[in-house]
Design brief:
The protein is mostly helical. The protein has one domain (9-179): Arp2/3 complex 21 kDa subunit ARPC3. It has helices at residues 2-5, 14-32, 47-57, 59-76, 85-101, 108-135, 139-168, 172-179; strands at 35-38, 41-43. The relative contact order is 0.13.
Length: 182
Amino acid sequence: MSKLLHWKSSRLDLQTLTGLSLLCALYVVLQMVTINLSPMLQITFSFVTLALSCYLYGFWPNVIFCLAVDFLGFIVHPDGVYMPLFALVLMVKAWIYTMLLYRKKISWTRVALAQFLVDLTGNILLTPLLLSMMYSVPYLAAVSARLVKNAILFPIETVLLLVVFQAAKQIPAFKKARAQEK
């Protein structure tokens, strides 16, 4: 249990802030590239940048990341009413990615478990709760639609994360992070 509550992170130095800024910009851009299935159901690939950021920097720098991308994403691409609680959902996702990926050797089981827990908690349980609060949509209706979407996308997202982590091994920041793996 103490391992779950031990939230190590990178120092907030200039290199970390620069990397976070670049990943924030990429997250906002990828968030705008969406496939709209319905007004409240979208497919996006911005999760990749959150997973990368958590792998590289840990939880606390990603709290800043989550707050920034939530606010900047709404400013750049306003879609409905601004709800700051979505930043908390992002923080829960960041915590899950950090617990399973930060300074850990990347394996398909670790990535699949991280993506499964992120999909379950953030996408299937918490986001529909916020949407039902905002738009008075029945919670179970929102959950059932997201359950189907995430069941279909789970293997695709897992493979995409594995491919991105494999390709990113050549990036100097990743080489430094891989040297610190346990």
